[in-house]
Amino acid sequence: MFDMFGMMGKIKEAQAKMKEAQEKLKDITVTAESGAGLVKATVNGQRQLLKIEIDESIMNVSDREMVNDLVVAAVNNAMLTAGERAQEELRKHTEGLIPNIPGLDLGSFGL
């Protein structure tokens, strides 16, 4: 027989673990670079941009478009990596609580 109360308890436990894991995501930091290290972007596991570092050698470059492209590439790389690490962290914290449902994307939980 289906245990409704047991299932509700599991759901509440999973929600609490998910919230705890999401709070810890701000402690994950990822730095990615572009242009062989000329531009570096640091983001956290909540996909918040924390820092941009631009090498002085390109600060006087007349090609602003190139600098803009390097910044965008570094930020996008950092965001992608941070998202992957955040999903790993959420999986680790909710392992065994959320059933392995094909197509379940933890990204739908705010990542």
UniProtKB/TrEMBL annotation:
Enumerate the UniProt keywords alphabetically.
Answer: Coiled coil, Cytoplasm, DNA-binding
| Entries under Pfam families matching the protein | YbaB_DNA_bd
InterPro entries annotated for this entry?
A: YbaB-like_sf, YbaB/EbfC
Recorded hits in HAMAP family, A to Z, give: DNA_YbaB_EbfC
PANTHER family named in the record: NUCLEOID-ASSOCIATED PROTEIN YBAB
Query: What task does this protein carry out?
Result: Binds to DNA and alters its conformation. May be involved in regulation of gene expression, nucleoid organization and DNA protection.
Name used for this protein in its record: Nucleoid-associated protein PKOR_16830
Instruction: State the organism named in the record.
Output: Pontibacter korlensis
| Taxonomic lineage of the native organism | Bacteria, Pseudomonadati, Bacteroidota, Cytophagia, Cytophagales
